[in-house]
Amino acid sequence: MSKPEGLPEFYQHHFQNTPDTRPTDLGQVNVFRLEESLILGSEPVQFSRRDFYKIALLHRGHSVYHYADQRVEAIGPALLLFNPQIPYTRQLLSEEITGFFCILRQDFFQERGGINLSEQSFFWPGSVLVYPLTVPQAVEVSALFEKMLTELVSDYLLKYDLLRTYATELLHYTLKLRPADTSYPLPDAKARLTALFLELLERQFPIESPTQRFALRSARDFARQLAVHPNHLNHCVRATTGKTTTDHIADRLSREAKALLRHTDWHIAEVGYSLGFDEPAHFNYFFKKQTGLAPSAFRRI
């Protein structure tokens, strides 16, 4: 698997250089028109993780995003959110693509004591990627992106604070699009502990080398790190998400296994070892139980 895409690689791929109209020291946030980033004849987006968050408005067009064994279709108008830890590749299915997107670093929000992006439910692994919009909703979101584009080239001394406000408004707009029963929970003790568990789980990824190992394998391991009783951790996680800690761990391991099998040439035993399975047979049993296929069979699909 390739290393995470950083901003220099992003600019090189989408623009073949850093756009002259953007300050080179901007760093933490930037906004673009979607059609300007699509270079005719350029290579498709490669399967990789990023080191920045991304929010996009697909105003017009049709594209498909591939996540390990998942295929998510986006038809404009739609709002799309990308977690930097979740690798994906994009396939364009129409010639006319219009819209906007912004790239954000976590530091951009935390600089002023703002929100932690990794704690937002729409950026959690397994959350919905594509949110269909009505035409009036697309007009509202477009207006926000237009404001951000205008502010980027302004001389206003506090423009980055204003950009942070607009970006936060985009995130809140996404929350309003979610069904009421899946909205981001109030930050009570159970929700906070669940967020810490999910962050600790996600922090062990990506697996980028066969010698790297997934260390925290059980609810007891996570409870020890979080200084709580395993039963209490499991109760909070189940109450907040409807799934047990074991379910979350198995699901995340399964998704990482699929990604490694599909996008690396590692031996199956190496994939299993990196995910914490000392014996290939144990990994084979786990993977088949999760997916219904042996690792070798999944790799041939």
Outline the secondary-structure elements.
Layout (H helix, E strand, L loop, with lengths): L6 H9 L13 E5 L19 E8 L1 E6 L2 E6 L2 E5 L6 E4 L5 E7 L1 H5 L19 E3 L2 H18 L6 H19 L11 H14 L16 H8 L3 H12 L3 H19 L4 H7 L5 H12 L3 H6 L1
Antiparallel strand pairs: 1-7, 2-5, 2-7, 3-4, 3-6, 5-8
Structural class: alpha+beta
Helix fraction, binned, reads 40-55%
Kindly state the mean pLDDT as a whole number?
79
The rounded Rg comes to 20 Å
Give a count of the beta strands, DSSP E runs of length 2 or more.
8
- Backbone shape: globular
Strand content: 5-15%
Report low-confidence residues grouped into runs of 5 or more. 15-26, 180-186
Number of helices: 11
Give the strand order, joined by hyphens, for the main sheet: 1-7-2-5-8
Distance N terminus to C terminus?
A: 18 Å
Main β-sheet description: 5 strands, antiparallel
Give the ordered list of helices and strands: HEEEEEEEHEHHHHHHHHH
Would you mind describing this structure in some detail?
By secondary structure, the chain is of the alpha+beta class. Helix content is 43%, strand content 15%. The protein contains 11 helices and 8 strands. The protein has helices at residues 7-15, 106-110, 135-152, 159-177, 189-202, 219-226, 230-241, 245-263, 268-274, 280-291, 295-300; strands at residues 29-33, 53-60, 62-67, 70-75, 78-82, 89-92, 98-104, 130-132. The strands form 2 sheets. A 5-stranded antiparallel sheet has the order 1-7-2-5-8. α3 (135-152) packs antiparallel against α4, α5 (189-202) packs across α7 (230-241) and α8 (245-263) packs across α10. The longest helix has 19 residues, at 159-177.
